[in-house]
Amino acid sequence: MHEVFLLLGSNLGDRQLFLKQAIEYIETEIAPVLKMSSVYETQSWGKTDAPDYLNKVVALKTSLAPQVVLQKALDIENKLGRHREEKWGSRTIDIDILFYDQQIINAPGLIIPHPELQKRRFTIEPLAEIAPDWMHPILKKNILQLKNELIDELNVKKI
C-alpha cells in the first residue's frame, strides 16, 4: 500500500459541498481517507482577484499506481464541474497529488512531490496539521521545517 497526500481546493459555488463531494468520490474511487486536515480559507494564489479558496489535505493508502491516482483525481474534478480555461483560474474543485510515498516522479503530466508545495502556505498549513514529520524526499526537510521557512504571506486561516 502506498501513502498518498492530496490537496483539495475550491473557490466557486458551495465550496464546502465540493470538498465534501470530492472526499466521497476519493473514498469510493481511490481509497478510504485515513486522515484529513481542517478546512483552511485562503486568498487566491497566482490570480489575486479571484474568490477565496477553501483548502484541505487528505491522507490515504492505496494500491493504485500514481498515474492511476492522477487519472482518477482528474475524473473526479470533471464530475464536479471543473473547467480548465486559464492558469490559476477559479474552479469548483482542484485535486493535487502532493506526495506518493517518498517517490520522486517526473513524468509528462505528473510531477511528485508537487513542485510548488513548499512555497505555498495554503498547502503547508493543512499538511503540517496532519503530517508535520513527513519528510520531503527532495528537500530532505520535514513539513514542520518547511512551514517554519515559508515566506508566503497569503492569508490562510483555519475555519
Spell out the blueprint of helices and strands.
Elements: E1 2-10, H1 15-29, E2 33-36, E3 40-42, E4 53-62, H2 66-79, E5 94-100, E6 105-107, E7 110-112, H3 121-130, H4 143-149, E8 156-158
Antiparallel strand pairs: 1-4, 1-5, 2-4, 3-4, 3-8, 6-7
Question: How is this structure best described in words?
Answer:
The structure is a single chain. With 159 residues, this protein is an alpha+beta fold. The longest helix is centred in the first third of the chain and has 15 residues, at 15-29. 29% of the residues lie in helices and 26% in strands. α1 packs across α2. The model has no long low-confidence stretch (mean pLDDT 92). A hairpin with a 2-residue loop joins β6 (105-107) and β7. The strands form 2 sheets. Strands 1, 2, 3, 4, 5 and 8 form a 6-stranded antiparallel sheet that branches. It has helices spanning 15-29, 66-79, 121-130, 143-149, and strands spanning 2-10, 33-36, 40-42, 53-62, 94-100, 105-107, 110-112, 156-158. It contains 4 helices and 8 strands, in the order βαβββαβββααβ.
